[in-house]
Backbone:
């Protein structure tokens, strides 16, 4: 275990040193190349900033306006019928858009039900096996100029749905309800 800790302490500095040495051997102008990459990264941030702001505002309006509670109440009868905890519906929906907002909902679940409760465990597993689909798609596709996403969105939504169901099933199998 100590060996792993020592390796983890040195892995990043050794990697950086390797890159610098390799660049020197190839006679690459390291500082100029670094600055060029930083400029490209900044341009990407500026290009995707409006989309990110839009997503953040949409999530806050959705949450503060009470739409999340209304949607949860609409989903509750179906969720109860299939055995899905309706209290996790807001988390599973917000997780599609914003990881930080989902983390806020996760902390609310921990505070209300406890982290070791069934809902706390399911929500923890759910956060680990789902993705912020809309955020990720807008970030990566917009940054490289892809406009036609083909099957990405439907497949990502299906994968998220499977992740949510898997979280419930796995926690039920491991801990019972």
Residues:
């Amino acid at each position: 275990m100590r060996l792993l800790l020592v390796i983890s302490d040195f892995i990043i500095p050794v990697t950086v040193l390797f890159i610098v040495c390799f660049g020197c051997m190839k006679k690459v102008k390291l500082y100029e190349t670094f600055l060029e990459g930083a400029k490209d990264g900044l341009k990407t941030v500026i290009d995707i900033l409006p989309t990110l702001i839009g997503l953040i505002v949409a999530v806050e309006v959705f949450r503060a306006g009470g739409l999340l509670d209304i949607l949860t109440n609409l989903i509750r009868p179906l969720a109860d019928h299939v055995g899905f905890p309706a209290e996790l519906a807001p988390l599973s929906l917000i997780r599609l858009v914003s990881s930080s907002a989902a983390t806020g909902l996760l902390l609310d679940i921990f505070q209300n039900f406890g982290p070791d409760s069934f809902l706390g465990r399911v929500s923890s597993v759910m956060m680990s096996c789902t993705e912020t689909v809309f955020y990720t798609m807008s970030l990566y596709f917009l940054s490289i100029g892809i406009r036609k996403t083909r099957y990405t969105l439907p497949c990502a939504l299906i994968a998220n749905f499977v992740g949510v169901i898997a979280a419930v099933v796995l926690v039920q199998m491991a801990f019972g309800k």
The CA atoms of residues 48 and 139 lie 6 Å apart. The chain has a mean pLDDT of 88. The first helix runs from residue 2 to 25. Helices lie at 2-25, 30-64, 67-82, 89-94, 99-113, 118-128, 133-144, 152-175.
